[in-house]
């Protein structure tokens, strides 16, 4: 058996679990820390995976797969779940025929994200069961369990991961593997077309299934109780349960694997079995709120531990009831645009001209840091265009004429296109300027492809490439300029100045490949392995 | 008693600290230990500060090394000592480039493996075990230069 023992990251374990669960298609959008799930899955034998332009489309593709009666995994990071939320709430009503698992990776402490939202709130809001592994073995096991639950009750299931689980390597012993179920379409119009008349009963069906799943979770859910102290009891989920076991070896720990719907009966029994009970969870007081609402007597929560990641020392502090100020760790060196990054020239120029920049999500977000410090806003994927338009609409002329939306090529494909459509239709008085920093890849998350690079997930040529310039022209942009930001600086400067001075809708595409992508592609050409 | 060893690596994105954590992870994994390795990457790949944790023993629970808990702290540069010293436990060992003849490295990119050589002097694993792990984790064309770096770090 020991030959089967492997050291795997949580992401690799989810990928292997997905294969062993018999999945027909993996689909997702790259986002740290979830990205490597699909990349690893695609490398496994007979496993098919593809990137979607954004998380909403990824989930829609996944819904199609599951409606066709076979299994699918959809991967994204927490903020991506916001983008996919629209179909999520309704597929929870329709349910699915084949197994459907959404692997969603949260980022407590924001190692590389714009917020630290807690995806468990989506599980409750949408009514989708949620499992939460603590390490790679559980990531592997719970992926398979999630598919089983999904198929047994015909409901999508969220597998909530966190940076620590995704990017930690721990030992995994894999178990047996299932074949991929054959897709086969069976029409079910009233079950899948959510007009109000059909959606009303669907909502009731969903709640009834959730009640059944809660019963199952009480009786046989993945919620082991470790230790037998009668003094201190700790209820914890995911990796925090491991911190808790280490911080308080003598405590009795209830380790929750299925966090929605909570096994409330089992939890209340656990609370009754100890003198003092404390809930330890990262991010929002999700379990805390539910347990207190159900009348569970637990210690009040200390708000300060809602922020950032937990570790053993912080969990010890929680157990000790220590609400004193925590020592701030020394500041490290912040990340920077690579030397030779094509974005450097673009930011230098925009800074010199003195633009107001509504920015977006990608490597170029680093343009906010010294020495550039040229980014006025950064909210969400694609937000640069809408926010720039809003400012252009209401600012006095002199200020309005300075506003430039800056977005990358990958982000443009993800959710910049609809912003351009809005710009055409609801045209601001002094026009608008979008600068697309086109480096030919999704650099920030590790050089993934997108429809504009013309390559598929495995970096092989796609049938066709979506042309950014042709798309902008076809949509009705007045002027589209394509240039090389490093080689054509004067032309770049002139183009920006002209655009700002005119009342046109202008798109300037600053095109030069990411230097890391160039190096990666050279490796692929030489036939070397890329990570 | 269950003894867990905590090794913390600190460097800047792109310096290869994830690789050297993987190499040590390989050594202890091959010996049958429970192992947990935690890292934070993402934005930090663009030259920012980055740390990586390796814990091993009979049974490892949390994957993270908290402040004051590292038995070993391996830093990729002297200027990283100050920012990371707080991870080290009382009596813990600091491993840094000035522990060996760093300017004799033929290839600066092998500094990470040279540091493993310096670390290896304080750990109960044979050179052969380390070398097997180096070879398992790196592509073949880099074996020779990294083996030399390891031995330089080890002072042999
Ligand atoms: S990875 Fe590419 S796009 Fe990102 S900073 Fe480096 S060169 Fe620029």
From TrEMBL, chain A:
<feature type="domain" description="Thiamine pyrophosphate enzyme TPP-binding">
    <location>
        <begin position="360"/>
        <end position="509"/>
    </location>
</feature>
<comment type="function">
    <text>Catalyzes the ferredoxin-dependent oxidative decarboxylation of arylpyruvates.</text>
</comment>
<dbReference type="InterPro" id="IPR017721">
    <property type="entry name" value="IorA"/>
</dbReference>
<dbReference type="Pfam" id="PF02775">
    <property type="entry name" value="TPP_enzyme_C"/>
</dbReference>
<protein>
    <recommendedName>
        <fullName>Indolepyruvate oxidoreductase subunit IorA</fullName>
        <ecNumber>1.2.7.8</ecNumber>
    </recommendedName>
</protein>
<keyword id="KW-0249">Electron transport</keyword>
<keyword id="KW-0813">Transport</keyword>
<keyword id="KW-0560">Oxidoreductase</keyword>
<feature type="domain" description="Pyruvate flavodoxin/ferredoxin oxidoreductase pyrimidine binding">
    <location>
        <begin position="18"/>
        <end position="172"/>
    </location>
</feature>
<comment type="subunit">
    <text>Heterodimer of the IorA and IorB subunits.</text>
</comment>
<keyword id="KW-0479">Metal-binding</keyword>
<keyword id="KW-0004">4Fe-4S</keyword>
<dbReference type="InterPro" id="IPR011766">
    <property type="entry name" value="TPP_enzyme_TPP-bd"/>
</dbReference>
<keyword id="KW-0408">Iron</keyword>
<keyword id="KW-0411">Iron-sulfur</keyword>
<dbReference type="InterPro" id="IPR009014">
    <property type="entry name" value="Transketo_C/PFOR_II"/>
</dbReference>
<dbReference type="InterPro" id="IPR045025">
    <property type="entry name" value="HACL1-like"/>
</dbReference>
<dbReference type="Pfam" id="PF01855">
    <property type="entry name" value="POR_N"/>
</dbReference>
<dbReference type="InterPro" id="IPR002880">
    <property type="entry name" value="Pyrv_Fd/Flavodoxin_OxRdtase_N"/>
</dbReference>
<dbReference type="InterPro" id="IPR029061">
    <property type="entry name" value="THDP-binding"/>
</dbReference>
UniProtKB/TrEMBL annotation, chain B:
<dbReference type="InterPro" id="IPR019752">
    <property type="entry name" value="Pyrv/ketoisovalerate_OxRed_cat"/>
</dbReference>
<protein>
    <submittedName>
        <fullName>2-oxoacid:acceptor oxidoreductase family protein</fullName>
    </submittedName>
</protein>
<dbReference type="Pfam" id="PF01558">
    <property type="entry name" value="POR"/>
</dbReference>
<dbReference type="InterPro" id="IPR052198">
    <property type="entry name" value="IorB_Oxidoreductase"/>
</dbReference>
<keyword id="KW-0560">Oxidoreductase</keyword>
<feature type="domain" description="Pyruvate/ketoisovalerate oxidoreductase catalytic">
    <location>
        <begin position="13"/>
        <end position="106"/>
    </location>
</feature>
<dbReference type="InterPro" id="IPR002869">
    <property type="entry name" value="Pyrv_flavodox_OxRed_cen"/>
</dbReference>
């Amino acid at each position: 058996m020991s030959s089967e023992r492997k050291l795997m990251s949580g992401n690799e374990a989810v990928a292997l679990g997905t294969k062993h669960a018999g999945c027909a298609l993996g689909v997702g959008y790259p986002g740290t820390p979830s990205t490597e799930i699909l990349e690893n899955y695609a490398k496994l034998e007979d496993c098919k995976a593809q990137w979607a332009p954004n998380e909403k489309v990824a989930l829609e593709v996944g819904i199609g797969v599951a409606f066709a009666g076979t299994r699918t995994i959809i991967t994204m990071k927490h903020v991506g779940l916001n983008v996919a939320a629209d179909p999520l709430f309704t597929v929870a009503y329709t349910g699915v025929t084949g197994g459907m698992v959404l692997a969603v990776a949260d980022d407590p402490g924001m190692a590389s994200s714009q917020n630290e939202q807690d995806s468990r709130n989506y599980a409750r809001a949408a009514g989708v069961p949620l499992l939460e592994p603590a390490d790679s073995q559980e990531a592997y096991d719970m992926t398979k369990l999630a598919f089983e639950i999904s198929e047994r009750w015909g409901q999508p299931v969220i597998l909530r991961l966190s940076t620590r689980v995704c990017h930690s390597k721990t030992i995994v012993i894999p178990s047996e593997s299932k074949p991929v179920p054959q897709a086969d379409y069976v029409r079910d119009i009233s079950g899948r077309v959510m007009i109000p008349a059909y959606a009303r009963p669907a909502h009731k069906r969903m709640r009834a299934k959730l009640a059944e799943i809660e019963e199952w979770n009480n009786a046989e859910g993945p919620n082991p109780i470790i230790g037998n102290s009668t003094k201190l009891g700790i209820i914890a989920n995911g990796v925090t349960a491991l911190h808790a076991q280490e911080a308080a070896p003598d405590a009795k720990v209830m380790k929750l694997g299925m966090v929605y719907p909570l096994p409330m009966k089992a939890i209340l029994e656990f609370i009754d079995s100890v003198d003092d009970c404390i809930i330890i969870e990262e991010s929002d007081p999700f379990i805390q709120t539910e347990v207190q609402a159900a009348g569970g007597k637990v210690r009040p929560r200390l708000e300060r531990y809602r922020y950032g990641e937990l570790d053993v020392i912080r969990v010890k502090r929680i157990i000790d009831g220590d609400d004193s100020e925590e020592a701030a760790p020394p500041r490290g060196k912040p990340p920077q645009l690579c030397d030779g990054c094509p974005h450097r020239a673009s930011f230098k120029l925009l800074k010199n001209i003195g633009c107001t920049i509504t920015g977006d999500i990608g490597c170029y977000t680093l343009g906010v840091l010294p020495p550039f410090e040229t980014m006025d806003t950064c909210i969400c994927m694609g937000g640069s265009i809408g926010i720039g338009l809003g400012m252009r609409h209401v600012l006095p002329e002199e200020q309005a004429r300075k506003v430039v939306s800056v977005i990358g090529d990958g982000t443009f494909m993800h959710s910049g296109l609809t912003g351009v459509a809005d710009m055409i239709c609801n045209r601001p008085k002094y026009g608008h300027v979008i600068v697309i920093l086109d480096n030919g890849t999704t650099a920030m998350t590790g050089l993934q492809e997108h429809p504009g690079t013309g390559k598929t997930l495995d970096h092989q040529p796609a049938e066709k490439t979506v042309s950014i310039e042709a798309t902008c022209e076809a949509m009705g942009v007045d002027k589209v300029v394509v240039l090389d930001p490093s080689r054509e600086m004067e032309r770049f400067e002139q183009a920006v100045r002209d655009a700002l001075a005119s009342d046109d809708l202008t798109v300037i595409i600053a095109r030069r490949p990411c230097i890391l992508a160039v190096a990666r592609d050279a490796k692929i050409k030489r036939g070397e392995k890329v990570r | 008693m269950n003894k867990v060893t905590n090794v913390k690596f600190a460097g800047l994105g792109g310096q290869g600290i994830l690789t050297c954590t993987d190499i040590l992870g390989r050594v202890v994994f091959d010996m049958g230990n429970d192992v947990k390795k935690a890292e934070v990457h993402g934005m930090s790949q663009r030259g920012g500060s980055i740390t990586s944790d390796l814990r091993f023993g009979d049974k490892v629970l949390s994957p993270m090394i908290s402040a004051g808990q590292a038995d070993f702290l391996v830093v990729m540069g002297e200027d990283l000592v100050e920012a990371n010293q707080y991870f080290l436990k009382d009596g813990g060992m600091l491993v840094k480039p000035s522990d060996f003849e760093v300017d004799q490295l033929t290839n600066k990119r092998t500094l990470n493996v040279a540091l493993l050589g310096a670390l290896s002097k304080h750990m109960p694993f044979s050179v052969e075990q380390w070398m097997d792990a180096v070879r398992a984790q790196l592509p073949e064309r880099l074996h020779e230069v990294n083996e030399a770096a390891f031995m330089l770090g080890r002072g042999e």
